[in-house]
Amino acid sequence: MNNKQVYLKPNVVLEPLVDNWYAWSHLISPATAAMNIVGRHLTIIESYLLAPSIHANAVLNPKMKGGPFMDFGGGRIDEVTALESESLRKQEKVIQFAKAIKELDKLLTLEAKGYGLEELYKKVPDILRGYVELFYDRNNNPGFRFFESLLYNSEYYNKNSQSIALWITNNDERPFCLSTPRLAEPNVLHLDIPFDHLCIDELAKMKRAPQNYDYIKTLCGISPSQEALFETFFTETAPLPYQKYTGDKIRMRYFGHACILVETKDISILVDPLISYYGYQSDVEHFSDADLPDTIDYVLITHNHQDHILFETLLPLRHKIKNLIVPRTNSGRLEDPDLKLMFNNVGFNNVFAIDEMQTINFNDAVITGLPFIGEHSDMNILTKSCYLVKIGDFKLIFLADSRIVEPKLYEHIHRQIGDVDVIFIGMECDGAPLTWLYGPLLTKKLPRDMDGSRRLAGSDCDKGMALVNIFNPKEIYVYAMGMEPWCEFISSIKYTDESNPIVQSNKLVSLCTEKGIVAERLYGEKELLYEKQTSMI
């Protein structure tokens, strides 16, 4: 028996996986998972096995960064072949489901010509029957929606594909996660547990509170052959105690990318958690999970992209989060899965969906959902929300990756909320083409020029200045640029001084500074203190 009390080391990674691929939101919702397993994972595997040297050369080319290329240097062929065989075996039903979606799209294109759809239900592929509703839009274009909640209780939601990889890190180096699976490594321990397993919460708590080693070993189901490695993840040395903020100001802390923590002595609000979670030395000054409070009152999610919903951050925070706020949708469309359903099915029981201009009040603070336009390649996606956070009379708006394609929208919003004190806006204004993220969900090939015209892009300088002229902020901060080294494995972004997003954001900062507005492009970490009556100290 080992009854010693131990802590989880601060640099232990809890990496969530689906079929040994990095878990992001489109691998949770059953329909998007099916399409990505077939259209992304198996396609990349097949390509790698056919031409491993092409992949090896592509990952060395900066222009190919973020492309569909495995980062194994052209080797590990036997392991990739085994992964393919295992995926085909485990995901047989899911693969059939993805094929049926393509068949249904084809059926509707060929036979839904504006007449009644009832007879077409008889031709829906068998495995989709009872899971879809057919419809026309107002222009007689056919489509279908899923009864998504039923899919989570079907054989097409395969929790057995979920697992956690535990390993110790000392840097930010990782291959681009959407293209390279996690193969076996001597220093990586795989736990075959689903994402809603209590083990994840108990391990995460051990970063601050000690636990009996035998208890956690048993809970995680550690076998004798795994124990030697498992034991290296723990220490008897207590971490430095967390110092709760007790001041009378509003404290804003930037954790990198789009992650902002807003605190008073009474409340804490965390936006889009993507955190350099691990306690190791870095050339870039940054906050880590050690700087998060023991209880987070509200976590706000702006939209369903992999750099704004990071399970590697969110699952270990689950035990701390009192309320998780997500944009509302129940459209049932393949490209627009329901985030509340998704989070509920991975163990979050305190999830609330917010509508546009809906307000949540608590103590002397208010959270309001705001419309979010752009950055979704002109897809009809509803699962997105910007946020107004008001504490006392102090107002901050978080606009994430919004592209201000129609300033009139924000004039309407301004009439309701008035001027604001601080704006946070993303300016990754080039963006990847539609197919980079949504390609596996498409059942028709998109012409290259059409694909290139529909970008996952935020605002440029002119669009950002439109917001300044409408909301008259005292301060504006450019964020959500994916610049920090710990974001590169999920965003694939690496800028130079000549990159358009850098040029555009520099221009915005300069113009705002000339107007007497405090302006900065955030990087690494930043802390600011504000008076509740809107004056900055």
Describe it for me?
With 537 residues, the protein is α/β, with parallel strands linked by helices. 29% of the residues lie in helices and 20% in strands. The chain contains 16 helices and 23 strands. The protein has helices at 30-50, 52-58, 77-90, 92-111, 148-151, 198-205, 213-219, 224-231, 311-317, 339-345, 407-417, 434-438, 448-453, 461-471, 488-491, 500-514, and strands spanning 5-8, 12-18, 21-22, 132-136, 142-146, 162-168, 189-191, 211-212, 234-235, 250-256, 259-263, 268-271, 296-300, 321-327, 351-354, 359-362, 365-370, 386-391, 394-398, 422-426, 475-479, 518-521, 526-530. The strands form 5 sheets. A 7-stranded mixed β-sheet has the order 15-14-13-12-11-10-23, with helices on one face. The chain has a 7-stranded mixed β-sheet with strand order 16-17-18-19-20-21-22, with helices on one face. It starts with a strand and ends in a 7-residue tail after the last strand. The mean pLDDT is 95.
